[in-house]
Amino acid sequence: MTDTPDTPHTLLDELARDGAFDDAKWRQFDELYRPVVAFFLLQRFPSLAGDCDDLVQDVMVKLVEQLRKGGYERDRGRFRTWLAAIVHNLAADKLRRMKRFAEVVPEDVDWFAPQMATAREQLDRQWDEARYRAARHHVLHHVPLPPHYAETFRALEKGASPREIARRFGVAETFVRQAKHRVSEAISAMLRDD
Fold first, then answer.
1. Do residues 132 and 191 lie in contact, with contact meaning Cβ atoms separated by under 8 Å?
2. What integer pLDDT is reported at residue 116 of this predicted model?
3. Model pTM greater than 0.70?
């Protein structure tokens, strides 16, 4: 997940066009969505952690197929809801094959139906959390940050006070606030496009 690519609708439109076999665009799409799909899948179906990589790959393949067939209809709902439904259906298929989710028939779940509003709201919250976790992970592990920024941010998340952190690293409390602000901004920049 490097810098966020073109706005998702622009990217989706380009990928959905007949003959859109631009490897760079698909790599961009994969880089943007693969980590989010993985976090979302693990959050909703923790029992599938051992199958996560395979399921994420299945989701990405299904997305490619569906986008090329025009399966996403923007006027029916948000892309994230449609994508989450694909993740849910493939995970449910896997669990059903494993005899852990037999009562759910994925084809019967219409996430865009009006009666699914509460489920969509929960799904949106979980999707937002998965996106945040993927962006946070990318920033803390792959974005070059000044010394102690990542450690400062993690310590703040764990509840340490700015004073404690400043003492731990031998820096001023203003450094702690600056580190939190810069890391938060980097994460926010990755989340702006959905």
1. yes
2. 55
3. no
Please say whether the beta carbons of 127 and 178 come within 8 A.
no
- Give the C-alpha separation, 120 to 142, whole Å: 31
Residue 64 to residues 71, 114, 121, Cα–Cα distance (Å): 10, 27, 25
Both tokens assigned to 161: 């006070």
With 0-12 / 13-18 / 19 or more C-beta atoms within 10 angstroms meaning exposed / middle / buried, residue 99 is exposed
Long-range CB pairs of 157-162 (<8 Å, 24+ gap) are none
Cα–Cα nearest to 130, from 74, 88, 167 = 88
Chain mean position to CA 63: 14
Structure-block tokens of residue 69: 């067939």
- Whether 131 contacts 191, CB under 8 Å: yes
DSSP letter for 148, please.
T
Region of 73 please: left (phi>0), alpha (psi -120 to 50) or beta: beta
- Of 56, 76, 60, nearest in space to 15 by CA: 60
| Residue burial 63-85, b: 16+ Cβ < 10 Å; e: rest | beeebeeeebeeeebbbbbbbbb
Residue 36: per-residue pLDDT: 85
Give pLDDT < 70 ranges for the chain.
1-9, 16-21, 100-120, 193-194
Q: How far apart are CA 57 and CA 34, in angstroms?
A: 8
